[in-house]
Write a structure and sequence with these properties.
Blueprint lengths: L1 H14 L5 E9 L10 E4 L5 E3 L5 E7 L2 E8 L6 E8 L5 E2 L2 E3 L26 E5 H6 L7 H4 L6 E2 L9 E2 L7 E5 L2 E3 L3 E2 L10 E2 L6 E7 L13 E7 L8 E6 L3 E10 L3 E10 L1 H7 L4 E17 L2 E16 L7 H9 L2 E16 L3 E19 L8 E22 L2 E20 L6 E22 L4 E12 L13 E9 L4 E12 L3 H4 L16 E13 L4 E20 L2 E4 L15 E21 L2 E15 L5 E3 L6 E10 L4 E10 L3 E2 L4 H4 L2 H6 L13 E2 L3 E13 L4 E9 L6 E2 L3 E4 L9 E2 L2 E5 L1 E4 L2 E2 L3 E9 L1
Parallel strand pairs: 1-7, 1-8, 12-17
Antiparallel strand pairs: 1-4, 2-3, 2-5, 5-6, 9-16, 10-11, 12-13, 14-15, 16-17, 18-19, 18-49, 19-20, 20-21, 21-22, 22-23, 23-24, 24-25, 25-26, 26-27, 27-28, 28-29, 29-30, 30-31, 31-32, 32-33, 32-34, 34-35, 35-36, 35-37, 37-38, 38-41, 39-40, 41-42, 42-49, 43-48, 44-47, 45-46
């Protein structure tokens, strides 16, 4: 098989065709959706260019297969640049853009180089990631959650999880939107009450670009403390049907797109993993498998009205491999990982109405999560059950937004309403008190928001003021819009066309997770009705500098102050929820004993070279501190306090459609809490909780060693007459760096494998530390066929 594949790759160049491709699309105004005539469309670095016709259409011909940067400019409108537009000869590259039709942009055409207009509402802490950047990212495996680790302020747990940690905040402080529709999470095997998981859910073939806000959130986006992600999906083509088939290291995916009639387009995908079989061959003790679907159907009723229906969902299963090799590490894993199943989906419907000076959007959506897990002592169904958990979360949402421009003022306002239902049936045997309850919860959420933005002194100074408020009927203290007034203010001053000073401050609120709100005691009473909206006061100040060669430099300082963060009771002690960390399972299903404060502050350095003469690259360095008050009121470092994060990603495009990329990540070691050996060694505890019990009096007192990883990727594209073939070879951790994680605490065994009791104390086991390492080389070969 390997020889056949090798011959296939070697013979491919003989069948490839050296042809040319096309970039085409339509240019419209952002607010009114009217076609723009006379827009200058130029391919940067070439002499190829054109202008749009009376219908706003353009076409760029005779382009060799490869990646191009296309600039759109028209007097009186903000400049727009589309980076890394991929051209093939098998199908035209569709690139539709909209230009800001605001009078403030009259001076934008004089900006040197290829600088775009900044967002008035968020002039800093906003990064935009293109689909090509996601696809080519070394070690990213086309997974958006992994790709954003190249950006400043972003860290993740060492290992294979995709928890997104922004500026020292917990993973559940992030919010995600898909074409304006909120989705609860973007990962398979998501941790309930959080958002992390090991595998990304969103198909990158749907994505045009991703706007990533690490601060300065606009008022129309609420319930976020650390970040907001706006995933902007492409529309299906209106002229022909296309398909993309992807065979990766862990799954097989198929994407189909094209027209449905004269006014409607679609794009849909299905992905199926074969990780379960692969893990079984490797002798691993757990067997994950997943499936997911995604679709988008868009109907343009006329120039003023359009309707979009979209959906995304997953089916996740996690079983045990009891026939795995009988190593100590496998024994520990099998003793602690439950059998798990998870189903989730989001369905969204949006209606957009354009007018002369603006547009309105109406969004209806439904989210659903079904999560279940069970576990027996010694993985034997004849033994007592230690875990039996099932839970459902359902949200039905409505949001109205209006965006308009009046006399140079940009105006955004709207409202939201949502019903929330939560159910949980929990049976979990634990040391220091079992968790056994059934909970059912139903309540109503509502919100109002508005933002006003304007530029002054010939566009030198831009100001934006927004306000938002949220409330719900869960408790009387949260059913009050005046208690969550959330003002935010942004300012930007342009010293020159290339250098600007940017500022933002605001107060942001987030509702605790349903797993916190729905916890009940043994009598069936809700115990956490004392919780409030978590608040986060933020200040960000930064400088931004652009060069004429698509290079951008920024430096930002930030300070975040948290209030009303839940303190939870866990395993006989009390800790801040932010210090718990994240893992598979459920986060927050604990009694809340009080509320506490926290803070995170630091500095970010960022440099980005967009594609220029075949080179591209990103440099990001973050220095920060994240800490929360413990039960004694003393600030203790949070589980996310890595202190420093360095990421460097770069690549080079060579002749004949070869591409080489590399990524280097270096982070400080994460804090962890040492074990309480006295409690962990008790046989009564170990029977129901076969792992180490933390000594919460030493909360996050120890620290792992620093972590680094080098990833590399090679791409080769073969342009054929009817299709394009892309082969890629990706290697994660090419240096085979073996990093240390917190060791496991396990009972000692004799030569026959029997657990050993403490001499003179038959109630306890002799314990020892079991080394817990990660960092194997992970190569993968992928094949992508675009039809």
């Amino acid at each position: 098989m390997k020889q056949i594949l090798l011959w296939f790759i070697l013979l491919l160049p003989a069948f490839a065709f050296a042809q040319t491709g096309v970039i085409h699309g339509k240019v419209t105004t952002t607010l009114s959706n009217q076609p723009l005539q006379g827009v200058s469309v130029a391919v940067i670095g070439t002499t190829i260019g054109t202008v749009t016709d009376s219908a706003g259409n353009y076409q760029l011909n005779n382009l060799k297969p490869g990646y191009y940067t296309v600039q759109f400019s028209l007097l009186g409108y903000g400049k727009k640049i589309s980076y890394d537009v991929q051209v093939t000869n098998s199908k035209p590259a569709l690139t539709d853009v909209s230009l800001e039709d605001d009078a403030k942009a009259l001076s934008d055409v004089n900006i040197s180089g290829q600088r775009e207009s900044k967002s008035l509402e968020s002039p800093l802490s906003l990064r935009t990631i293109g689909s090509t950047e996601i696809k080519r990212n070394p070690g990213g495996n086309r997974d958006i959650s992994k790709v954003i680790q190249s950006l400043p302020g972003v860290s993740s747990p060492v290992g294979f999880r995709n928890d997104i940690i922004i500026r020292g905040g917990a993973p559940n402080e992030n919010r995600f939107y898909l074409d304006g529709v909120e989705i609860p999470n973007i990962n398979h095997f998501a941790t309930q009450g959080s958002s992390g998981g090991p595998v990304g859910l969103i198909n990158v073939d749907f994505i045009n670009e991703v706007d990533f806000y690490s601060g300065a959130f606009p008022a129309d986006r609420g319930n976020a403390l650390s970040s907001v992600f706006e995933f902007k999906q492409k529309d299906g083509p209106s002229d022909k049907h296309d398909a993309t088939l992807t065979l990766g290291s862990s799954d097989l995916a198929a994407t189909f797109e094209g027209p449905i009639g004269s006014k409607t387009t679609f794009i849909s995908s299905y992905r199926y993993s074969y990780l379960q079989g692969l893990f079984k061959l490797l002798g691993l003790p757990f067997l994950p498998s997943y499936q997911d679907f995604q679709f988008k159907i868009k109907t343009k009723l006329d120039a003023h009205n359009e309707i979009t229906l979209l959906g995304i969902g997953a089916i996740d299963r996690f079983s045990l491999n009891l026939n795995a090799p009988n190593t100590e590490l496998n024994q520990y894993t099998l003793a602690n990982i439950p059998v798990n199943s998870q189903n989730d989906y989001t369905i969204g419907l949006t209606y957009k109405n354009f007018r002369k000076k603006g547009y309105s959007i109406f969004v209806l959506s439904r989210d659903y999560l079904d999560n279940g897990a069970y576990k027996y002592e010694n993985n034997d169904p004849t033994q007592p059950q230690t875990l039996n958990y099932s839970s459902q979360e359902t949200e039905n949402k409505f949001r109205f937004e209006n965006n308009s421009s009046e006399n140079g003022y940009r105006i955004n306002f709207g409202a939201g309403a949502e019903t929330a239902e939560y159910y949980a049936n929990t049976y979990n045997l634990l040391p220091f008190g079992n968790v056994i309850y059934t909970s059912s919860l139903s309540f109503f959420k509502y919100s109002l928001f508005g933002q006003l933005s304007h530029s002054y002194f010939q566009d030198k100074l831009s100001l934006s003021f927004g306000i938002r408020t949220d409330a719900n009927t869960y408790s009387s203290q949260m059913d009050n819009l005046l208690k969550t007034l959330s003002p935010r203010f942004s300012a930007s001053y342009n010293f020159t066309d290339d250098l600007s000073l940017n500022f933002n401050t605001g107060i942001y609120y987030q509702l605790p997770a349903y797993t916190v709100l729905g916890y009940r005691d043994a009598t069936g009473s809700l115990t956490n009705t004392n919780v409030k909206y978590i608040s986060d006061k933020q200040v960000v100040l930064g400088l931004e500098y652009h060069t004429a060669k698509n290079t951008k430099f920024t430096i930002e300082g930030f300070y975040k102050f948290y209030q009303n963060y839940p303190m939870i009771k866990i395993l006989g002690d009390t800790i801040p929820l932010a210090n718990l960390g994240a893992d598979f399972g459920v986060v927050g299903s604990n009694p809340v004993t009080g509320l506490t404060n926290g803070r995170s502050y630091g500095t970010e350095f960022f440099a980005q070279q967009r594609l220029n003469k075949g080179f591209y690259g990103i440099f990001a360095l973050t220095l920060f501190t994240s800490e929360f008050e413990d039960k004694h009121g003393t600030y203790v470092q949070s589980s996310w306090n890595n202190r420093y994060i360095l990421s460097m990603t770069g690549g080079k495009l060579f002749k004949n459609n070869w591409e080489l990329g590399a990524k280097f990540r270096y982070t400080g070691g994460a804090p962890y809490t040492p074990y309480n050996v006295a409690s962990s060694s008790l046989k009564s505890n170990y029977a129901i909780y076969p792992q180490g019990i933390q000594d919460w009096n030493q909360l996050n007192a120890d620290r792992l060693g620093d972590f680094y990883q080098v990833d590399m990727r090679v791409d080769k594209k073969y342009p054929f007459r009817k299709f394009t073939l892309n082969l890629y070879f990706d290697i994660q951790n090419i240096t085979n760096n073996q990093y240390q994680l917190q060791p496991y605490l396990v009972p000692n065994r004799d030569a026959n494998g029997n657990l050993q009791s403490v001499p003179g104390d038959p109630s306890r086991f002799i314990t020892k530390s079991l080394e817990n390492k990660g960092g194997n080389i992970l190569p993968s070969l992928g094949i992508i066929v675009e039809l």
